[in-house]
Amino acid sequence: MESNTKLIPEISIIIPAYNEEQSLRPLMAELYPVMKDTGRSFEIIFTNDGSRDKTLEILKEFCATYGEVKVIDFCGNYGQHMAIMAAFEQAKGSKIITLDADLQNPPKEIPRLIEEMDKGHDVVGTYRVGRNDPIFRKVASKYVNKTTNRIAKLNIKDYGCMLRGYDRRIIDIINVSQENSTFIPALAQKFATNPIEIPIAHRSREFGDSKYSLFQLIRLNFDLMTSFSTVPLQLVTVAGMSISVIAFLSLIFLIFIRFALGIHMTTRSFFSLAFDALEFILIGANLLAAGVIGEYVGRIYKASNHRPRYSIRRIYTNGENND
To answer: Strands 42-48, 11-17: parallel, antiparallel or unpaired by DSSP?
Structure first.
């Protein structure tokens, strides 16, 4: 059994885990030697995000075996970013690195992030090269990244890659912010003074399934855009004004052909059908506007009810169980 050091670690590795029983042991077999080889003091913090398989049992085994491991056990499933936020509040390192548990980002890339942080970069982002994902997912991700950057006024190449490094100062600011809807890479980018992005390797998924469905990915990116910008509201306003102008010009045109040209429309002509189509456009625009406005109202509601963002059942450390 590894000794449990009382020194404050230099590096904190943070890993959210949700139903990852198949990947955890292979992950630890790769990660632990990599961290030992750095020659730096470190801790590894796992957050069990309401897993229904044997994830917690395996993590408790890690606590008993490795003095550097701490496990946060959630009462339910609060999502990847809340799992990371909870670990941020427990992390003691001056350099904090987040990593997914699915082994798609190799732990051997971690020393490269540490090297960049040693150079003074307060946020080290990463983007996947040779990405082993379905073509639809890669194409969709490319366009979503571009759209999100433009709307949120950010410059992040790959929002979906969670292997990232953060300076202690950035984590302290994020912890103080207490936002209900938190997309960590974007939030950190807003606070960074010397960020950098580096390419990293990417593996195909060997264990389990992706925790994000297509709907959840859309939901996540919409949440990201509305968290960091009011542009969606402004786009709805512009769209409403544009449709109103088109409707007004259409009405003027119909009056013109009726009275100036003397064209009688006693049947459902082309123009009548076009007017019907315009009516449906207006209905759709109203629904879109209501949805976007509702998103912002919902965000205000979440901020005002002061509910905790997550609930921790227990924290496990080497030889200690803390409620």
So the answer is: parallel
Which residue intervals of 40-134 are DSSP H helices?
A: 55-65, 80-90, 110-118
- For residue 41, the 8-state DSSP code is -
CB atoms within 10 A of CB 288: 15
Contact of 247 with 282, CB cutoff 8 Å? yes
pLDDT tens-digit map of 52-80: 999 999 999 999 999 999 999 999 998 88
Q: H or E segment at 130? A: none
User: How far is Cα 256 from Cα 86, in angstroms, rounded to an integer?
Assistant: 65
CA distance 15 to 257: 68
End-to-end CA distance of the chain: 24
| pTM, to two decimals | 0.72
Cα dihedral 161, 12, 169, 316, rounded to 10, equals 110
Banded model confidence at residue 116, pLDDT cuts 50, 70, 90: very high
CA distance 323 to 318: 14
Instruction: Identify which of 108, 67, 100, 60 has the alpha carbon closest to the alpha carbon of residue 81.
Output: 100
